[in-house]
What does this fold into?
Amino acid sequence: MLVLRLLRAAWVVFFFFGLAAVFFLVVLAFFAGAAEASVAKREKRADAARKSLRFKAVLGQ
It folds into this structure.
């Protein structure tokens, strides 16, 4: 009986650690995706600014 009780307790602890690990990975993936989108947005904005400066330089000549 003691062995079954210990196995059940170990299974419950393992299950909750597994849930916590999955939750952590989902949150990590979300923040990684958000950071990647932020970098892409910044690069797009920089490209637009470069094109705008190039266009202004062409018009100024």
Residues 2-60 form the longest helix (59 residues). The helical segments are 2-60.
